Amino acid sequence: MANLVGSSWVGWLGALFASAGLVLGTSFTLLNSRVSVSHFSHRSFNPDYFSESEIVKPVKPRKKIVIDLSEQRLYAWQDNKLVHSIRVSTGKRSTPTKKGNFLISTKYRSARMRGPGYDIPNVPYTMYFFRGYAIHGAFWHNRFGTPVSHGCVNLPVKEARKIFNWAEIGTLVVVRR
């Protein structure tokens, strides 16, 4: 019996199956999607739709929130200009605020927050940026400038309203030491 692995008809057969898979996958994507997202289609990018300045312009966030844990301050930046600087209370040593770069994923005018040792209804101006971590108003204490939270970033309610109205879903949040 001849060696089938090295024969040319096996290569052709493999190419045929691969091509059929690409065609079927692309068709399935186009038929079952609200948006045409096939990366196999040359029609997915129309260079005439964009001006040259838009294509080469670097993407940068217009708005950014920086939480400085060592200073216990929130800095809000818009187009590289500081627009807000606010004293905050971040997580205490036993429940630290998560460090890193995040995006505001959801915003709620009022939210209920629960965890071990706390259950607070009507937490105002809540903006989640990572799992259960949020920037929000705190009416239950006035110790801003001191880490006292369970990991969230607490602001005075009046200041939280300003940041809530200023920030958008997708705003970059940088939490650093």
Report on the structure:
There is one protein chain. This protein is of the alpha+beta class. The chain has three helices and nine strands; from the N terminus they run H-H-E-E-E-E-E-E-E-E-H-E. The protein has helices at 8-31, 52-56, 157-166, and strands at residues 63-68, 73-78, 81-87, 100-103, 106-115, 118-130, 133-137, 153-155, 172-176. A hairpin with a 2-residue loop joins strand 2 (73-78) and strand 3 (81-87). The longest helix is centred in the first third of the chain and has 24 residues, at 8-31. It is globular and about 60 Å long. The chain starts with 7 loop residues before the first helix and ends with a strand. Residues 26-31 and 33-45 have low confidence and may be disordered.
Short description:
The chain has 177 residues and is of the alpha+beta class. The chain has three helices and nine strands.
- Strands in their spatial order, largest beta sheet: 3-2-1-9-4
- The shape, in one word, is globular
The helix content, as a percent range, equals 10-25%
Work out the radius of gyration.
25 Å
> Which series of helices and strands comes N to C?
HHEEEEEEEEHE
Uncertain residue segments: 26-31, 33-45
- Percent of sequence in beta strands: 25-35%
Number of helices: 3
